[in-house]
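Bug report

Summary: structure tokens for L-ascorbate oxidase differ between web form and batch submission.
Environment: batch mode, default settings.
Steps: 1) Submit the sequence below via batch. 2) Compare with the web form result.

Sequence submitted:
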Amino acid sequence: MAVTMWWLLLLITVVVVAFHSASASVIESTWEVEYKYWWPDCKEGIVMAINGQFPGPTIDAVAGDTAIIHVVNKLSTEGVVIHWHGIRQYGTPWADGAAGVTQCPINPGETFTYKFIVDKAGTHFYHGHYGMQRSAGLYGMLIVRSPKERLRYDGEFNLLLSDWWHQSIHAQELALSSRPMRWIGEPQSLLINGRGQFNCSQAAYFNKGGEKDVCTFKENDQCAPHTLRVEPNRVYRLRIASTTALASLNLAVEGHQLVVVEADGNYVAPFTVNDIDIYSGETYSVLLKTNALPSKKYWISVGVRGREPKTPQALTVLNYVNATDSRPSHPPPVTPTWNDTERSKSFSKKIFAAKGYPKPPEKSHDQLILLNTQNRYEDYTKWSINNVSLTVPTTPYLGSIRYGLTSAYDLKSPAKKFTADGYDIMKPPANPNTTKGSGIYSFPLGIVVDVILQNANVLKGVVSEMHPWHIHGHDFWVLGYGDGKFKPGVDEKTYNSKNPPLRNTVVLYPYGWTALRFVTDNPGVWFFHCHNEPHLHMGMGVVFAEGVNRIGKMDIPDEALGCGLTRKWLMNRGRP
């Protein structure tokens, strides 16, 4: 299919830029985290705000800068942490912001200082990583610029995508943890930069007599959409991040093509599409050329993929400066059919590394095959990996390893492969029962590990869900995708070893497998988990420890470990 090639004039061969320059700056800020009444979708709710803002403030840095963020917990009764999604935290694993893994939650009234180098240029974001606080709106954009940017464009916009429930996160957590489980349902609204519409529609005038009225906004309405104002015949970079709790999304800009140039902070070989699929935890940059009729306005639409859409589209408008129409003249783009998985796979398989990126090592030293299943544990509904549902301990793994506190978690590692060779991934599990555990996978420093994520049918019915998996502290190469059950010794031959993309988040498609490869080059303890908030809450994750001997020599701030057994150890330190 012929496509326009205008982007060739905009893109010079890209090389990786990730270094600490001599002219690096310090970005320092104090953030107060508290609950606020808000109107995210034109209906009043409660959000987690930072310094009174929802979403939180955007961090704008240059690769090599040092970020110092003093987080003040002004919540009355619960802890809080913040994860810097996409930042690898070389040398500062305690700043990763994963409660129970790298630090203790920040207690109410207390302050914790995150200090780390933003090592990697690209589009990133941050979010809460304690309980389900991301679902409550604790998130914001984190933009890291390259001092040697090779993309050429005239302006840029940030699009932070999220989903929104009217039920509080505390009610959601209780429902998911109940026996029997009470499913929280689909989100009531989708938000673009924290703004959506639940009880009205911007496009209702195309459907007179429909269920919803046309939205009318007042000045300073918190749910009023942010319009993207553009000049004709310019090139704009759209930085897109998905911090959804559950929804997989599709984004389209009416009348405009999108050139995908970045994924998860890594440049990719440019390719042109009419819309993009984006899963929770993923980020993209796309280039958009404003070459449509400048007298019109155009919809930007975001809809649900991968789940039966019971949530209406989120909408905003691309507005040419000289446009005279008060509204777009056509209905919004229709989101592709929610269960057209082949279309989604086609998009994923178009993503290749840009020139100049390192190829993966030819062979791996270790392999994990992680079977994703939905199970029961004493009548609780759980998600499990190789029949273990993860329970994160109260003492952070990082502190337990640092101080040799062997009773803080299960010392036995989970199985590297699921032992039931006859497991039928196409049917509900014959034995629905699972176990709980807090064991971790421990790797020596400097080896190559392959991870095969294997999907399967859920507990009931004929259903296999999409799972976006995110790794902390690393990027991995996405070696390939496949249908059905992974065949060791056979499917490895289909891997892309020439130009696989580097990512930190990847989707696992229904009834299929996804293969990854990474190098254990970052001493620390790192979460690897499904980025769907309810799934992680129900146990869908594993933990990697790397370079344990180096962790034992780390100078970890005491305030990161002031809970559980590490608290007791620190209190008794120096006593006879």
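Above is the batch result. After comparison, the two runs are identical; trailing whitespace caused the diff. Residues 21 and 64 are 6 Å apart (CA to CA). DSSP finds six helices and 34 strands in the chain.
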